[in-house]
Amino acid sequence: MKFHEFDLHDDILDALYDMGFDEATQVQEHTIPLILEGHDMIGCAQTGTGKTAAFMLPIIEKVSQLDPGKTRALIIVPTRELAIQIEQQVQGFSYYAGTTSCAIYGGGDGKEWEVQRKALDKGVDIIVATPGKLISFIDNDIAQLKDVEYVVLDEADRMLDIGFHDDIIRIFSHLPVKRQTLMFSATMPPKIRQLAAKVLKDPKEFAVAISKPAEGVLQAAYVCHEDQKLPLIQSLIAGKDDCQSIIVFSSTKRKVNLIVRALQKKGLDAQGISSDLEQKEREEVLMKFRARQTRIIVATDVLSRGIDIKDINLVVNFDVPGDAEDYVHRIGRTARANTTGIALTFVNEDDMYKFQQIEALIESEVFKAPLPPELGEGPEWKVIQKRKGGKKGNFKKKGNYGGGNKRPQKNSGPGGNRS
Questions:
Q1: Dist CA 30 CA 53 (whole Å)
Q2: How do the residues of the chain divide into helix, strand and coil, expressed in percent and rounded to 5?
Q3: Residues 64-107: tens digit of each pLDDT
Q4: What are the residue boundaries of the structural domains of the chain, listed by start?
Q5: 33-48 pLDDT, tens per residue?
Q6: What fold does the segment set 217-396 form as a domain?
Q7: Cβ–Cβ < 8 Å for 139, 62
Q8: How many other CB atoms are there within 10 angstroms of residue 131's CB atom?
Q9: Angle of the 110-122 helix axis to the 131-139 helix axis, nearest 10
């Protein structure tokens, strides 16, 4: 379905044309008409499915027809990065429509607070905010929500994981009872259903591609010892000159620094990003990465959700994520918008069970690639099952994906740190 087939104003269609948007995704095709009709909605869609445009286009359509100077729409998100990204997209979508917007988030300096305060004092049409910072503005009588007609909870499952449930309920206590509320989540556990029952009214439901990687992602895993990971990633990336945009995910901030140094030693253009950096520094790293001025970015899970960077060629999971759902979001950085990409995961002895949980979730066995010969042999792949009482039992699987039990000489690196 083409965007011009929706009942959207020409100003919005002109902006979409300028941004290169032509054909709607499945999420957009099913949700935009329902949102335009005024229904509350709960949508289950993973990253990369176009859900931001799905809720923002109809909201901009409606807000642009109202008197300016009052906040009419509120988008609540879990992280500052997602707040910045969505607000940037709002600026693009509403370029000709004339609606105003502001991102509200913490982690910056006093100057950012003042810029955000002045924007709210002027009266912006659309606020994109993280819960904690928004409550701070509410408590200081800066954010006025009495005129809000449209509310979106984006990445609702992640907000609850972080611990924002009480903050969300507090924010909703300041909102008008008469409003249209939309909730988007990558997963739909019972706690999301419970929250939806509190804030939505007779919602329409939509789900797409639940917990499944995009079809264009070529997945593979390397079964390796922990001390083989650094030389492995050096070898893999050094040999992939055609991959011009690469994200490496690590479980800890310490490993981010180790990986960056190891890649830079090989003459590879790599930068790290984690919560150790100031907000301005993180934005500069992301800006350079988007502009292709930096080829490789190494990150903790701060980037696994909500950062819309196009044309990622390769995603490397240096560590297996602790949550099977996070695997989908990590590798969702590549193969976006019907493109293709590669996702590689390093699996050590301790992480075999976690990776098997991932394979169960995505209902697919990921190919176990052989290690480069110069790295020696990796651990033997084993099927690990939980025994009664929660203990894990080891069961050898026929086939030797990573080699035998011989270990290579230890390399300097993360050592035996468990991910």
A1: 12
A2: 40, 20, 40
A3: 999 888 999 999 999 888 898 899 899 999 999 989 999 999 86
A4: 3-208, 217-396
A5: 999 999 999 988 766 6
A6: Rossmann fold (3.40.50)
A7: no
A8: 23
A9: 70
